[in-house]
Amino acid sequence: MSRPTESIHGQWASRWTFILAATGSAVGLGNIWKFPYIAGENGGGAFVLVYLLCIAVIGLPLMMAEIMIGRRGRQNPVNTLRTLAKEENKSSSWAAAGWIAIVAGFIILSYYSVIAGQAMAYVFRSFANVFEGVTAEGAHHIYLSLTHDPERLLAWHTVFMVLTMVVVARGVKSGIEKFVKFVMPALFAILLLLVGYAANTGVYFSEGVHFLFTPDFSKLTTNSVLVAMGHAFFTLSLAMGAIMVYGAYLSKNTSIFKVSMWIAIADTTVALLAGLAIFPLVFANELTPSMGPGLIFETLPIAFGHMAGGALFGGLFFLLLVFAAWSSAISIIEPLISWLVENKKISRRRASVTAGFGIWLLGLLTVFSFNIGENWLLFGKTMFELLDYITANIMLPLGGLLTAIFAGWIMSKNNSTDELGIRVPLFNSLWRILIRYITPLGIIIVFLSVIGILG
Ligand code: TRP
């Protein structure tokens, strides 16, 4: 069977564009908003260690697998999996794994957009110098005044969704390179500035470092391990077809191993820097690390409110965060859009409007979870918490498991290693061992433990 050498949606201009776009996808709210608050909720050090381990032994091999599969199939995840399964004379029902990806993306973007909207609101608050001299209590009230107002949250959620769908409608490739090239380094610089500020808090900085990097395994529950693993998928944009469709636009002569390493390192560094900026502030202001999704919104303004030029730096920081979230949001929805365009034969524009409207509507559940729907609980979780839990902790690991099985067991050794193109035989074998045994077993063991079948 002859395989397409290029996707119908075109191709990245160069290896660099792919790296930028994939890093833009990986680095987002997951690193700066989510990682610190879940690390705080799950006791710090031991959780961080498990997370790093998951990135290395589950995330990295899986990222390589996804790029490899995407590049070989050159279509949306559903069609790619079907084509590659046929190539191996295996059941075309593997396409169903692509479906999990597409549905998960739809749900994730619905709440991602609401949080990105909160970051947008903070751009304006920062530039308007609202945080000047603010206390922890003041920052708390400022955050509540936003989240307790469904109209404001809804308005920002709407703005963010519109921005995302505008880029998606025009095609992922035009534009993305330009802004990621600028946003990533700038975000990095402001994070370093914030870590520098935190370092000046002396003993509190040590306390923050201790919290993040000294593992206390008595604080680690099986559920924390699941959350850490789920977050490894989330932060690397894995198991949802995002990296797979981006891989579909990648040229044949790029080293998949090198680009994956680069993306994983950049992504992890940003998350750790965010943690180092935030936890010293938590301890210096007698806040609790486990305060939840409001963590960055209630701590960082304290730093900005007390540093010279804080209004400017704060405004820039939240602006960059919005950009980072934007470049991630685009990738979350790309699998669905490419499916609509390829299989339903509708234009990118119509696909974007339709998908965008559905996601916006579902986003209302998250909007209300912070205010009038605070008490609409299911399994003891708000709607937002539930959507997050089901996607990040169940659908992503499940999608990852299927991807690993597909890459390691369904695809023949010849085809997968040919597409991966690793020249060192030892590395090739190492990847195959990881993807065939370690990655799937890791995921299964964590799942079984949480269900209570194991330990
Ligand atoms: N990785 C992004 C973040 O950390 C979010 C994201 C983008 C994502 N694409 C994804 C999460 C695909 C899961 C799957 O913010």
TrEMBL record:
Pfam families: SNF
Membrane topology: Multi-pass membrane protein
Cellular compartments annotated: Membrane
GO cellular component: membrane
Ranges annotated as spanning the membrane: 12-33, 45-65, 94-115, 153-172, 184-205, 225-249, 261-283, 303-330, 351-370, 390-412, 433-454
InterPro entries, sorted: Na/ntran_symport, SNS_sf, YocR/YhdH-like
Parts forming coiled coils: none
Entry protein name: Transporter
Organism placement in taxonomy: unclassified sequences, metagenomes, ecological metagenomes
